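Note to self: keep these together.
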Amino acid sequence: MELLLVLIFFMYGLIFGSFFNVVGLRVPTQSLFKETRSYCDTCERTLTWKELIPVFSYLIQWGKCKKCHQSISILYPLMEMGTGLLFALAYWQFGWSYELVLGLLLISLVIPVTVSDIAYKRIPNRLLLFFAPFFLVYRFIFPLSPFWLSFAGAMLAFLIVFLVIVLSKGGMGVGDLKYFTLFGFIFGPIQFLLLFFLSTLYGTVGGLITMRVKNVGKRTKIAFGPYIGLAALTVFFIGYPLIDWYLTLF
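Structure:
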């Protein structure tokens, strides 16, 4: 029964992942519901239902549009598969619990923000403003102990990232500041510090790989939102074990 539920969460994750791709690509440039039908980005042909099956359609079409034969971004199946795996992992690790609700909310925020930042180098305010009330309500119903840790985490996140922006003269964007502040509220000060460390670690490694693969310079603008999101998911799934492991070193 448990395995069946994990599979169900995986399937729902695939479906929601497909929707999150659309959200991440449309929200920064247009209304999400301005055009309700999915279409090819190159030839603008409306896609049939057979071309909209998460992951499977990409594989069966060899990653190309059936009409214009232009390549479809690998981002689509990666985000769909990633969302499916994360949904399944959240249920497998937490079962039917309040942590599962938080996990699904986090995944639903991180995936479209990641898509948007990769595609446009932007973390849309509309996405953060949409999700912020859900996290506020969640922390009102399931507060950290003591409750003021959420506000302390948000303040700490804001101050640290604001200082980084000032000292680096724009090394991070305002979108990153808002994204970090929201996570500071969700996780509190201690876990935020771990999140901030992991995001800079992931960003440094990812940036070095990007510069080597694309042969670009240090001043090339790199989307940092995906690394923040990856760090947030890391903290959610294994944050406390990582902190406990770190403390055993002393």
